[in-house]
Amino acid sequence: MPVSRLHQSLIALSAALAILGSTLGGAAIWLHYIAKPLATLLIAALVWRHATPATYAAYRRALLAGLGFSWLGDVLLMLPKSTLALGFELGLASFLLAHLCFLRALTRDARWARPLWPLLFLLLIGCANLAVLWPGIGAALRPPVLAYMLCLVAMSAQAIARARSLATPASSLAALGGLLFLSSDTLLAYNKFYAPLPASALLVLGTYYAALYLLARSLPAGAGAALSGLTSSSRT
């Protein structure tokens, strides 16, 4: 998928400002509020502007839906409780829907959990992490957190299984994106339910934006040209 250098720079700048605003806090938190959803929108635009033939239309639609729910989750999770009491729960639900959309995309051209070992391996890791985090998770949050973990593991495992099955550069990007999403949410969970992590904004948001970017770039290179209206000289 060809992407203009300007578009990539805007994504990187927005992600960096989101991380900076979260790290500084205080008055700078507004920088985070603006840049965090903007970065996700810019990543979604990569997929939106990508012309896709019928063979990848369903993959593209599911990917866009997943990025849309991710954007909504961004907005809901960053709102303080004084603004939205159930912001975390609603944000968790939005990201669960995002992973279901990504999972749908990843099963369009590959069988579910074939091979099976990525799912079993990531389930084992997920259960181990959940055992550590469980005491710090409130009783009301335990069912949704468990459901979210299972959905996230399923998406990440399917991305790996699909890459093993298709063995294409594009499918490898999706697999790495799935693993980075799993890493980002694991770091977020430890930061929230276990103990504050040093440089948590950099670790959590850095892996998150990398995951979204790789998933967006996972449309096969031959699937179509970017509808950017830019001249070929501006391509990377």
From TrEMBL:
It is a multi-pass membrane protein. It is found in: Membrane. The keyword Methyltransferase does not apply. Keywords: Membrane, Transmembrane, Transmembrane helix. The keyword Membrane applies. GO terms for molecular function: hydrolase activity. Pfam families: YhhN. It comes from the Bacteria. Its main location: membrane. GO terms for cellular component: membrane. The chain crosses the membrane at residues 86-107, 119-139, 197-216. Belongs to the TMEM86 family. This is Lysoplasmalogenase.
